[in-house]
Amino acid sequence: MAMDDPKTLVSTDWLEAHLKDPDLRILDGSWFLPVMERDAKAGYAEAHIPGARFFDIDDIADSRSDLPHMAPPVEKFISRMRAMGVGDGHQVVVYDQAGIFSAPRVWWLFRLMGKSDIAVLDGGLPKWVAEGRETEDMPPMMRDRHITVQRQANLVKDVTQVAHASKLGDHEIIDARAHGRFIGQDPEPRPGLRKGHIPGSKNVPWSDLLEQDGTMKSPEALKALFTSAGVDLSKPAICSCGSGVNAA
User: Rounded to an integer, what distance in angstroms lies between the CA atom of residue 80 and that of residue 55?
Assistant: First the structure.
């Protein structure tokens, strides 16, 4: 469905046309659930879109927290981006090895840090490869680049704010997990997690947002999907999942 908006979603055609732009930076933002038994770093090393850097979602997080994938401190984000040569003036495109699974987490994290020139690749690496486009297995040369960050606190809610919204009903709380996990029927992929969902939340599984070929559904289809799930699109939304990846 890509409409080639460099701030949201771009097609494989768009990316190939801009592949040699000097200010383009491509990120492989792959991450997999433990039950998937896939190694994102190994997948990147085997084949990635030319020029892509690997964005480690597990590493670029708040290591001071016992919870996975809490947003990293600003200083850590800056350090990691500079090391990857990603900075001011760059147009970023992020993809993942599953299609559209974890790449939106990277997109959201950039937005959280005040960087809006980033888009998700529609269909990700599977679509790129299926179309016979070029890949490589060597990482690019990365040079330090200054990056200016301004954290947008309004893009994240803490547990107290979510609990308050759950009681008041003034926000739509949307759970992106599979339906079996939402209703507490299927086990959680990590030990010690309680089953079920936040009271008052609505279930729109992330996979339902995609077409069979792994690309994003049209805006009209997405609107119908959320409406059919009982989501009031006039209300502000809070999105949740298991560890802050698929909610993005």
Answer: 9
CATH number for the domain formed by residue range(s) 157-240: 3.40.250.10
Per-residue pLDDT reduced to its tens digit, 142-201: 999 999 999 999 999 999 999 999 999 999 999 999 999 999 898 887 777 789 899 999
What sections of 174-218 are H helices per DSSP? 179-182
Which helix (H) or strand (E) covers residue 175, if one does? strand 172-175
Instruction: Please state the pTM of the whole predicted model.
Output: 0.93
- What is the CATH T-level fold of the domain 9-153, as seen in this structure? Oxidized Rhodanese; domain 1 (3.40.250)
| Whether residue 239 lies in the annotated active site | no
- Among the listed residues 173, 209, 241, 245, the single catalytic one is 241
Cα of first residue to Cα of last residue in the chain, in angstroms, is 18
The span from the CA of 107 to the CA of 100, in Å, is 11
Do residues 120 and 5 lie in contact, with contact meaning Cβ atoms separated by under 8 Å? no
Q: Where are the domains of the chain?
A: 9-153, 157-240
pLDDT tens track for 208-248: 999 999 999 999 999 999 999 999 999 999 999 988 888 88
